[in-house]
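Entry for the shared binder. Reason: the reviewer on the internal report wants the predicted structure included alongside the sequence.
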Amino acid sequence: MPDSSLLSAVIASAGAGTALIVVMLLTGVLSTWRYTSRIEKDAEYWKAAAEDERKVSAAKDQAVTAAVQRADAAVEVANLTKGLLEDLRRRADEAAAKA
């Protein structure tokens, strides 16, 4: 907030309309085009950063899902292989007992 003596000097030296505009600019009620443009660019930057973060998070979630599916498939293959090997051992033992 500007000093009150500065505001009083501006009001005294300028016309009422000009003084009102200057006071509104100094107090932040009005903003300049340059300030508004800077704020809009900043908002666009953060919006893009948030969108990039969402994309990275979605890609990570997909990678985790794919890894879980691969692990589940590997466990299923291991169980099937174990069953086949147990069956083979049983058959081999039965064949050895007959001979």
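Summary line for the report: The chain has a mean pLDDT of 87.
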